[in-house]
Amino acid sequence: MMETMYHTLLYAMPVLAVIVFIALFFVKAGYGIFQSRQWGISLPNKVGWVIMECPAFLMMLFFWAQSSAQSSAVLLTFFLLFELHYFQRSFIFPMLMKGKSRMPIAITAMGVLFNVINAFLIGYDLFYLHADIYTEAWFTTPSFIGGCLLFFGGMGINLHADHIIRNLRPAGDTRHYLPQKGIYHYVTSGNYFGELVEWTGFALLTQSTAAWIFVLWTFANLAPRAYAIRNRYREEFGREAVGSRKCLIPYIF
Known about the structure:
Layout: H1 2-23, E1 42-44, H2 45-66, H3 73-96, E2 102-104, H4 105-129, H5 142-166, H6 190-206, H7 209-237, H8 239-243
């Protein structure tokens, strides 16, 4: 039953990712800079983020604990890298948030569903279906080494970009500011770009089909939002201010 569900989702998720990618160019998710009452009842942003992100952390912990993967150093490494990201996103990132923004319950629920499916696919793939292929020789493969560099590089970009955004406004200020430090010299949505690089690194270092599908979903979810933010900044600060950055990275971010 679990394997049937895995294969069904494995084929369905890329199709859904394409649909979501197209839809998000027409419908803006109503949180953050696009917060809107049209999405209905909402939660405090911190609460919404914890509820939305922690299922991935907990489900991956369950899959790893119930498998025989504890005896594999390679699989333990995969597990710890995944959990490192989601521990930060579930329990640290929300606590660092400033302001009184809110997140619609509908967005939170969709996030929970996505994170549960993603953790299921990756956890089942790594710790059950293909656990036998990950011998200790995996540590010396170019894909693992290169993937680790991308993973930690993307995480560093993401964390630094979040730090820059958090400190744009003085206390009590509700205006919008154009981030221009660090990675923001090159892209408009440095935090999203960093997360995409991070998960690309994870897919590369694991060589997992499920992880590559997660990269596709990350792009499908974040790229339209990054594009919308770029256009919003152009409206507020002018095309020249936004377009003057060096554009070494694709236009959409």
